[in-house]
Amino acid sequence: ISGLDMDTLKPGDELDTSIKAHVAVTGMTRIQGVKRKAEIALLDLTGEGRITPLHPQTREWKPSALLTLTLAKGSILGGQQTIGDAAGKDLRKLEEFGIDLAPVPIGGPLQQDAPIQARWVNGALILPQGCLFVFPDYEVALAPKSWLDTGRDTHELDIRLSCGPELQERLHTGIAGARLGRDFARGLIAALSDKRGRLTFDIKSRGSLSDPKVTPDTDRALKNLMSGQGLGDLLKGFLK
Fold this sequence. Notes:
Helices cover 21% and strands 45% of the residues. By secondary structure, it is an alpha+beta fold. It has a domain at 77-239. Strands 1, 2, 3, 4, 5, 6, 7, 8, 9, 10, 11, 12 and 13 form a 13-stranded antiparallel β-sheet that branches.
């Protein structure tokens, strides 16, 4: 941060700043089972921030910031790696029901601006309110308190992936082709669907940003079943 007089800076002092940047990020990532160098992100970024340069207790130089950002439509987040690259055998249970997420790319070009409220602390970017990214085949909502740290190459993201029309049609076809029976398939689709009727999957992503551990989270689907969504059709399918 330029233009600061360190001799007069006090704990609690804050700086307001505007942000406009074009950011390119490359790194090693696993693609088709092989780690290789790839473009991870290409971002057009605008916004503003309030920076606290000193730690309030220790008075050490340890900047933190509250950020209001917008990633512009057309910015690229990922897209090189597929869910299959990241999740591997953890997708097998879904595949038993005809749900094949393996070829779905993780990310891609944003289809609309993505506003983000974030905190930057100790090198980590924390999303107190979560955020929404719209990609070509699906939407991704990041849960509140998801975070990532590019310097330490680590992250914890709780993701809800909601299918777009083409991906949803392909997955419906896969479920129908799995020979689960009409009632069972209808119950499964109901349990996985959100209020707008979109097939929706909860996913946890942990560990290295360049080689994330991605696993499906079935808690929401089970809760839907317990509340009756799709349960009747599933029971019919079992009893036939």
